[in-house]
Amino acid sequence: MEIVFTKPFIKDYKNLPKNIQQNLDRKISFLLQNIQHPSLRIRKVMGYEDVWEGSITMNYRFFFRRSEDKYVLLRVGIHNELLGS
Question: pTM value?
Answer without folding.
Answer: 0.92
